[in-house]
Design brief:
single chain, Rossmann fold, 3 domains, eight-stranded mixed β-sheet, three-stranded antiparallel β-sheet, 17% strand, elongated, binds guanosine-5'-triphosphate, binds magnesium ion
């Protein structure tokens, strides 16, 4: 095999060179364009062609024409015999006058035979594909089986827990429950059985979790006076949206007499927003600018079943703002004060918020934006630490839909969301 590279200005030029040198049997191995550069400036492109030929073919190039001899007059003579050979001479070779060959009918391609051959080949290909698919299915099934077996296999002795307890323990850690909280929970819930595998571990866990995760239950209306429900919490936590969800639910779905008092006069837009909502849902709205106005606002709502009170979101680290809030809440005497916090807030900040809002006697924790996180272990950490009951979870901006009553079973579902153990 002889291999050679040719560089030419065009493919045509290169092919002519190859044909000339290597003959017609040469094969093209590779072609590529070479940019011609002059001082770094691109000029006209050249073509580099790598060709190869069998050495024998080069030595004895295939001749397309036989040398013309008398014994082999060649194509030319066959046509022009009478013109270059004197047939009158005695030693003249006998030449048959050229006659056009009998015309053969042109064979039409037998199209019907081609698909038959292709169909057989196609069938074979399809069979091969089917076989491949079957093999792939087997492989996938095998992988899934192995994964399932690994997931189901009891994990030996994780921090002293075995069997399902160890799996639960790892799930808690993965959902970002603090190690010490997870350990305490599993230890207390598993009781004396910590070294035994318990097939009912998860059920037992959910059931017993209510001791560690208190929930407030639904709003309990009062017989003789409106239930006053205040929402406090850091800026943008979702106080107004959550208030609107609950107000709309109580008014439209439960047919209760509902009023809203807003003390969020910090931003003009906030007043406009809640006014528009109250008009749409046809709820009585009172706007209060100072704690002195609270009493008359409450009197105006005296016949209602529930009064929802919105407050301005201010930084809990600003003492002046917190003092203003305390003055409002003290004038209000709410039955329920829900501290609204985003589930996306980290543990240490949640704890800081709760500590700073203690001054307004928070008696409910309300977690918003569960739709924005896949790790809700922070909620368990904080609730387990402060033991304030949880009232609601919200999981979207849609009013009144994206809210649910806090329940232990539902919370555990949120907790396992995104956990792979
Ligand atoms: N994804 C998501 N967004 C929410 C949820 N609840 C509220 N929001 C959004 O969070 C933003 C702030 O909500 P607001 O209700 O205005 O919060 P706020 O606590 O009243 O805010 P301030 O009054 O300014 O302190 C808005 O864009 C809401 O639509 C929730 O559960 N999930
Ligand atoms: Mg607000």
């Amino acid at each position: 095999m002889r291999i050679k590279k040719y560089i030419a200005n065009s493919m045509r030029e290169a092919l002519l060179q190859i044909k000339d040198e290597l003959g017609e049997d040469a094969i093209i191995l590779k072609t590529r364009k070479l940019p011609k550069k002059v001082f770094g400036i691109a000029g006209q492109e050249e073509i580099e062609v790598t060709a190869a030929v069998d050495e024998d073919a080069v030595k004895t190039p295939k001749q397309s024409f036989q040398p013309i001899t008398l014994s082999n007059p060649g194509l030319y003579n066959r046509h022009r015999t009478s013109a270059i050979v004197d047939t009158t001479k005695a030693n003249a070779p006998s030449v048959r006058p050229w006659k056009p060959q009998e015309m053969q009918p042109i064979r039409q391609p037998r199209f019907n035979t081609v698909p038959v051959q292709d169909a057989a080949a196609k069938d074979q290909q399809i069979d091969e594909l089917k076989q491949n698919v079957r093999e792939l299915k087997d492989i996938v099934a095998e992988i899934l089986k192995k994964e399932k077996a690994t997931a189901a296999a009891p994990v030996a002795n994780v921090n002293g827990f075995t069997g399902e307890w160890s799996i639960l323990y790892r799930k808690l850690l993965e959902s970002e429950v603090k190690q010490k909280v997870a350990y305490k929970l599993i230890k207390e819930i598993s009781g004396t059985d910590i070294l035994l595998a318990d097939t009912q571990a998860e059920k037992k866990f959910v059931h017993a979790l209510s001791d560690f995760f208190p929930v407030a239950g639904p709003l309990k209306l009062k017989k003789k006076a409106p239930l006053i429900v205040a929402f406090v919490g850091p800026t943008g936590a979702g106080k107004t949206t959550t208030l609107a969800k609950l107000a709309a639910h109580c008014c439209v779905n439960k047919q209760k007499r509902v009023s809203i008092i807003t003390a969020d006069t910090y931003r003009i837009a906030a007043i406009e927003q809640i006014k528009m909502f109250a008009e749409i849902v046809k709820i009585n709205l009172q706007v209060v600018f100072s704690p002195d106005e609270i009493q008359s606002a409450l009197t105006a709502c005296a016949q209602d079943d529930i009064v929802f009170v919105d407050t301005a979101g201010r930084s809990q680290r600003n003492k002046e703002h917190m003092d203003e809030l305390v003055a409002f809440v003290n004038a209000l005497h709410p039955d329920e004060t829900h501290l609204v916090m985003s589930a996306t807030t980290k543990d240490s900040d949640l704890l800081d918020i709760i500590n700073r809002y203690k001054c307004v006697n928070v008696n409910r924790l309300l977690f918003t934006k569960l739709d924005e996180t896949v790790r809700t272990g922070n909620i368990l950490n904080i609730v387990n630490e402060c033991r304030i009951p949880v009232s609601y979870f919200t999981f979207g901006q849609s009013v009144p839909d994206d809210i649910e009553l806090a329940q232990t079973t539902r919370f555990v579902q949120h907790l396992w969301e995104g956990v792979r153990v």
